[in-house]
Amino acid sequence: MTKNSGLLSNPLVLGIGGFVIGLLVGWLLLNAIYPSPLVRFTNVDPVDLKQEYKQQWIVDVADAYASTQDLTSARNHLRWFTPEEIQQSLRFAFTERNTKSDAEGAARIASFAQVYGLDLASSGQSGTAPTTPKPATGGLFDSAGQLLIIVAVILLLAAAGLFLYMRIKGGDKTPKAQPAAATAATAAAGGTTSYARPEPVTTTVTAPTGLSDEPAFGPGAAAAPAAARAATSLAKSLGTFAATYKFGEDNYDTSFTLETARGEFLGETGMGSSETIGEGKPDKVTAFDIWLFDKTDVRTVTQILMSEAAYNDQATRQRLATKGELVLAEKGKHVRLETATLAVDCEIVDLVYASTPGLPPNSHFQKLIVEMVPAQK
User: Fold this and answer.
1) Over 80: is that where the pLDDT of 343 sits?
2) Which end of the chain is more exposed for a tag (fewer CB within 10 A), N or C?
3) 3-state class of 204 per DSSP?
4) Do residues 326 and 311 touch, judged by C-beta distance below 8 A?
5) Helix or strand or coil: residue 340?
6) Cα atoms found within 13 Å of the Cα of residue 103, Cβ hemisphere only
7) At what angle do helices 144-166 and 11-33 cross, to 10 degrees?
8) 134: exposed, middle or buried (C-beta count within 10 Å: 0-12, 13-18, 19+)?
9) Is the dihedral of CA 197, 203, 204, 207 positive or negative?
10) Is the pTM of this model over 0.85?
11) DSSP character at residue 201
């Protein structure tokens, strides 16, 4: 042990090295088992939310109906859930509000359930909160967290054992080795040997150029419209989404979930076909609705993007005016949806009309792409 290298003869370095290696391995295992909290999932349906958010979604739709009386919109927002899930969530909310003496809130739930064709008093399950099955546990290695803790403890014990071994084997008694040339010179001269201190090495690091101070606005930030950037510069951006329709996509409907960086559900926005023209398949969409749902608001804000022929047809305008504000769809046009706490800036980035014999020109869409930039106020 008298010829150990500098690192191996220093037990403190070995102990610190073992601890750092243990932390590194533990960190890698943790990231392999559990995704990083910085990873965000977007563009998921309400059915993929946590159970409490699913229930809150259903109750929010019921409360919103009391103000809008729009059953079609309510059914659209509940299309992901079975009647049993909707009934169970409404029954629990109805019982909870009655318990808290919230008669007005309970009446809204009961009214919506009646219109929706659900019976809140049947099946004898009133007051039971929807639950999700808990995974069975029992074995020592059933939990990935337990396995990670065991691996970390083993690594730390190995590092501590190596530290103690080096201390006992001669860490304190082993003299520090001198360079052979210096030892020979000292013995020959019978005196001491001085060493020249090496000159320090200076390294100059040049910072990379061309970096932009422009703030990011989520996925696809480079393509975000200038108007949307300006409108959301003082707000808290929730990302950038693109609703893309191509001719042949019947019953087109797409939606995007809005939530904070911590995963708190805020609402939803999206685009769907609102009006068709002509007969047969595929659908010939002459108008789309873009909408914004805010969980803190009692209404869903909607605007109707109309083709040129539909916009100039008085009968079509009167029929669609009840659904929302009418907008002539034009490439490059910007529209804005706002609720109590949310705003969405939309830009029509691409528009192509289809041509079908027997139908007016510019009456239905071949392609429509709308970029949506939501933000918190």
Assistant:
1) yes
2) N
3) coil
4) yes
5) coil
6) 0
7) 170
8) exposed
9) negative
10) no
11) P
pLDDT of residue 201: 40
Q: Contacts for 364-367 with beta carbons within 8 Å, 24 or more apart?
A: 364/247, 364/276, 364/277, 364/278, 364/284, 364/285, 364/286, 364/307, 365/245, 365/247, 365/285, 365/286, 365/288, 365/307, 365/329, 366/246, 366/247, 367/244, 367/245, 367/246, 367/247
CB atoms within 10 A of CB 218: 16
42-76 per-residue burial string, b: 16 or more CB within 10 A, e: under 16 = eeeebeebeeebbbbbbbbbbbbbeeeebeebbeb
Helix H or strand E encompassing 246 = strand 241-246
CA 326 to chain centre: 31
β-partners of residue 350 are: 369
Six token digits for residue 86: 């909707």
State the pairing for strand pair 300-306/325-328. parallel
Handedness of CA 215, 218, 221, 225 (dihedral sign): negative
pLDDT at residue 146, rounded to an integer: 67
Say if CB 258 and CB 266 are below 8 A apart. Answer: yes
pLDDT digits (tens, 9 = 90+) for 9-33: 566 666 677 677 777 776 666 666 6
Residue extents of the structural domains in the chain? 46-116, 222-376
Beta bridge partners of 188: none
Residues 6+ apart with CB under 8 A from 358: 278
Check if the beta carbon of residue 326 is closer than 8 Å to that of residue 306.
Answer: yes
Distance from chain centroid for Cα 374: 13
d(CA 271, CA 136) in angstroms, rounded, equals 41
Spatial separation of the C-alpha atoms in residues 229 and 250, rounded to whole Å: 32
Helices (H), 170-327: 180-189, 226-232, 308-311, 314-320
